[in-house]
Amino acid sequence: MSDPLERAPAGEAPRRRFELDDQGFDEVPAKYRRFYRHWQGAGDALGPNEVICPVCKIVIRSTRELRSGDRLYCMACMTRLRVREGEAGRLEADCEY
Amino acid sequence: MSEERGAEEVHDLDPRDFFERVHSFEFWFHSVEGYLSGTVYGHRPRTAERPLAADERERLVTVLCNYCVGETAALEGASGLVAIAPNRQTKVFLATQVVDEGRHLEVLLHRLAELGVADPEAEVERRASPAIREFRRHLLELVASKDWEAALFAQNVVLEAMEFTVFQSHARSADPVTAEVLQGIVKDERRHIGFGENELGRRLRESPHRRARLMEVKRDLDALVLETFEETLRDLGLPAAERPDLGRGYLAAVARLGFGR
Description:
heterodimer; A: 3-stranded antiparallel beta sheet; 6 strands; globular; B: Ribonucleotide Reductase, subunit A; 10 helices
């Protein structure tokens, strides 16, 4: 995987990196599990490397800080997504069929 | 980084590679292994039964009978769709869905037997609601007419969205054994709803004229679906205030596909 620091366009801050741990999401093959977790409801919060899948409501995680325009995959429901900035600046994702 | 954890950032996959992987039997097998391994008929063998009051058991048996009709419809529907699916990847995915639906029917019938129902299949015939039977009839007509988009919409968007919402809600209030059975089914349904929405999204993007036909199907099925939703949650004895917004998942899915209400 290319270094995200090299990917940051001129004028944009470099992206933070995240070490992902397995949080017990058992609905995808073991090697992909760390990229997903269940939303825990009230009291839970999304990190800067996470968005909620609009189709199946699983939290999708990345090893890098997400920004508008990034592509993500939800393997739990087989959906390709594109990140965008939603209301109040929170990152959301739209399906790309 | 260990081999087990994988060297790749999954989101860097090429879209064609992602599509190929998630539609494979290999992906399905390693997915279900994660949550079905160690279970017997959908629940852990050591999960203790909670004694049910007579009226609670009666309501649960009725609800499970209706679930069995829905799962039978999906089993028959998915197996019929394999033949008319447009490419190898969708055929393979639907083959895995056939296995999932067969498992769902089996574990629900087994749960009825665990609850003391002597002849579960006869009980399903006796108790199932007219609305879910009517939905099954509609779905199988669409499959028999080889109407790929309409049948997929009815099965993987309408029926699966309903089951996804109702099973999740029911699992939160169910006895421990029934809850485990339902939670396992919900994990399968996540793949089924995603497959339906994504496949239809691709088809509508390529052929927007198909939208009118799906609007007709939606009009035919909406009332039936919501009636089935309502009946089931009423049978579960949930007070109105505690019922989930039944149509929310379904309406959100059809809105993403470009259908207004």
